[in-house]
Amino acid sequence: MTVGIDAISFFTPNLYLDLTDLAKARGVDPNKFTIGIGQEKQSVVPPSQDSVTMAASAGSMLLTGKSTDYINSISEILFASESGIDNSKSGAVYLQTMLHLAKNVRTIELKQACYAGTFALMTAFDYVSLHPNERVLVVATDVARYGLKSAGEVTQGAGAVAMIVSSDPKLAGYNHDSVFQSQDLMDFWRPLDETDAIVSGKFSQEAYETFFANAWQDYIRRTGRRIADFKAFVFHLPFTKMGKKALDQIIDQADGQQQQNLERNRLAGQIYGRQVGNIYTGSLYLSLISLLDHGDVQAGDLIAMFSYGSGAEGELYSLTLMENYQQAIKSHVQKDLNARQRLSVLEYEKLFKLFPKSSDDQSLMNEYDKSLFQLAEIKNHQRIYKAAVSKLLIK
Ligand code: HMG
């Protein structure tokens, strides 16, 4: 029996910052951002968006129009995030209500920096392997904040990827070939009382490269596969240059023609990340959608997936594309990205400083946000969510 990703969707807020504008405002050569880092734009969150609203928007794209039987077959909601909204209650419980899922569903939040989305997916694969008639909703959702005028500012972003895991999946089958590694490192972290990440930038890049090189060695030793078996490598992309740095370490193992093919597909896999920025847990899976929308791939192809989460943990595994995989992509990412509103640097800075604290009662509705699900207000330390279209009070 094949287990894998049955459907996938992506949501990002409808606001963006052009990084050439940011470079000029920060007195930096724009080529450093667009070529050196490899980022063109970044999504910006209004105060009415958070990891829960973004996950609900992405999740609703997968569930809209589905039958009651389908909805009731979802037994678990796995909420992967490093920008959760509560230290106790899981974001997944909010989703159960917001997405009208059944009560007899397991809900849990998972954290290990950007790696948690992959762990959630692996847990879902395991569950469905034992319960082939059931489905799991996996969401990987984050707001990436480093701070105004910090070195990491150019790599911020926000968004959520939602996936349905099932048996006989329509998008891609998992090949049960994961290799993984953990090591206690301080390359990037965010203490509980901080809103912005703390990062040792160069060290984090070195750690990412080392984890990928080690994972690849381990993978080929355990599986007997070679680089020639793969049609594409898909990467967690904190910024798009990182994927190039990783692949460059092993590309010499391919012959000349395949090097060109892998490079073309690497570029296809970074088209969306270049316009969105780092979305932490969902980044690898946004890269997958980007590859599938723009790459030279077809059903039956073997795709290598590299997940890295600071702190640090890495995992390399492969997916095999299924027939008609295009129909399992439930969002029109480029259309949504083109429809975003461009902010000036001043507008972005204003919104950045409005990041809401749960201790202050406040209304968060604003003129910018056009999303289906919004954080309407914070009252008595509670987040009050609304579905904007139906004007339905969710909580
Ligand atoms: P920086 O120090 O400002 O940049 O920070 P730099 O001086 O290293 O320059 C960056 C690149 O631009 C260099 O290229 C320069 O040569 C080039 P490289 O040598 O690396 O190939 N450059 C130019 N190119 C063209 N024209 C120019 C020009 N000037 C310079 N005029 C840094 C960069 C990425 C460190 C910073 O943005 C940062 O700290 N970002 C956040 C950390 C990060 O993303 N780390 C990635 C690995 S860790 C990871 O992926 C996990 C993560 O997602 C978190 C999680 O797991 O939760 C972050």
From TrEMBL:
The active site is at 82 (proton donor/acceptor), 114 (acyl-thioester intermediate), 236 (proton donor/acceptor). Its EC number is 2.3.3.10. GO terms for molecular function: hydroxymethylglutaryl-CoA synthase activity. One of its GO terms (biological process) is acetyl-CoA metabolic process. (3S)-3-hydroxy-3-methylglutaryl-CoA binds at residues 29, 146, 245, 278. Residues 2-167 form the Hydroxymethylglutaryl-coenzyme A synthase N-terminal domain. Keywords: Acyltransferase, Transferase. It comes from the Bacteria. Residues 272-362 form the Hydroxymethylglutaryl-coenzyme A synthase C-terminal domain. It holds the Pfam family HMG_CoA_synt_N. Belongs to the thiolase-like superfamily. HMG-CoA synthase family. This is Hydroxymethylglutaryl-CoA synthase.
